[in-house]
Amino acid sequence: MPERFYEKRHFIEDISLYFEQMGMPRTAGRILGVLLICDPPEASMIDLCEELQASKSSVSTNARLLDEMDLIERVATPLPRQICYRFKPGGWVTFMRMRLRLYGSLHHIAERGLDLLQDADPPLRARLQEAHDMFSAIEEELPLLLKHIQEEHGIP
Amino acid sequence: MPERFYEKRHFIEDISLYFEQMGMPRTAGRILGVLLICDPPEASMIDLCEELQASKSSVSTNARLLDEMDLIERVATPLPRQICYRFKPGGWVTFMRMRLRLYGSLHHIAERGLDLLQDADPPLRARLQEAHDMFSAIEEELPLLLKHIQEEHGIP
DNA sequence: GCTTTCGTTCGGTATTGACAGAACGTTCCG
DNA sequence: CGGAACGTTCTGTCAATACCGAACGAAAGC
To answer: I want to staple A19 with a disulfide (CB 3.0 to 4.6 A). Which of A23, A29, A53, A126 is the partner?
Structure first.
């Protein structure tokens, strides 16, 4: 049993809970948790199954989910017939971009709401105008912020 | 039946779906949707029950949730024994601040992960260093952005 | 070429949580 | 005071979904 075993499990569980808050399955969060602290940085599906005490099917499904989200990626492995995953460099930027698109959609919804209230008094429209201004500002500024961070740290 | 009936229902459903993505109950999102486009801008619980065809209990519970999140607020009403809600000015800023706290928590989790890898090589730490840098930057910059937007639009 | 070992997909199961109905407490009116 | 209207809370029910086991398909070694 590796040292710091319990601490690592706590970390994995923290990541899992966080991504559960973000609407993802627990197991997906746990896989990501492992791939964030494992040494070496890549892990096979069998490794993940053992580490998480989860079934093949669950690991397979959730790993594919993370792969499609571009948070992890498959890497070459000398082992035959085995698939290895690792955390994908730049994954956090990708993650934030995804969240960003969600906020952007609220921007559009607000616009549609303003259309519905186009004949109404400005005070009535203020509720949605506030949303529109806020989320278009975020939609505009946050990509710049992300790009800035990205360049500052040499993330691909 | 009021004009633009279907359009309003679509708007309400869009808001509902959006906040479902954010991890909130459907009914809470629908209440918020109504309070974003209703005229007058306040609605009693009975109004909401009728508009949404939902039970008193559901409306009561979810309105309280939105109230605790500071997205809506109770307002005075001439009607006896009735409670009126309206969208709370500045609610969107509050909303974004809440989301921000969530990202902040990831920043702290990343720090704990780095502690676990303190003896590891820098390449191994890069995964978490990227998260740490990204989310502390966001945690630092986004409040400024929010404050900027807030002042620019005179939101309380 | 047969067996073995992985990964994927499908169907069933258990758990979670959102909603409605019922009972309760409160406030206002007759 | 008694009754009615409104909001809250509690409990049961239903639906959604995350997980597992099993069957299937593919690829490598004997």
So the answer is: A29
Which pLDDT band, with edges at 50, 70 and 90, does B34 fall under?
very high
Residues whose CB falls within 8 Å of the CB of residue B46, separated by 6 or more in sequence, listed in order: B82
Of chain A, the end-to-end C-alpha distance in Å amounts to 35
Count of residues in chain B: 156
What percent of chain A has a predicted confidence (pLDDT) above 90?
Answer: 71
* Residue among B91, B154, B104, B153 nearest B131 (CA): B104
CB distance A40 to A84 below 8 Å: no
**Non-local CB neighbours of A90 within 8 Å, separated by 6+ positions:** A150, A155, A156, B130
Q: Which of residues 125-154 of A touch B (CB under 8 A)?
A: 126-131, 133-135, 137-138, 141-142, 145, 148-149, 152-153
The reply to whether A16 and A79 lie within a common domain is yes
For residues B37 and B5, the answer to whether their CB atoms sit within 8 Å is no
pLDDT reading at B154 higher than 80: no
Pair (B22, B73) in one structural domain: yes
Spatial separation of the C-alpha atoms in residues A27 and A32, rounded to whole Å? 9
Q: Does A67 score more than 90 pLDDT?
A: yes
A78 touches chain B (CB under 8 A): no
Spatial distance between the Cα atoms of A116 and B8, rounded to a whole number of angstroms: 7
- Out of B41, B131, B141, closest to residue A127 by CB: B41
| pLDDT tens column, A84-140 | 999 999 999 999 999 988 888 999 999 999 999 999 999 999 999 999 999 998 888
Percent of chain B whose predicted confidence (pLDDT) is above 70 = 94
pLDDT(A148) > 90? no
The last residue of one of the domains, among A57, A87, A117, is A87
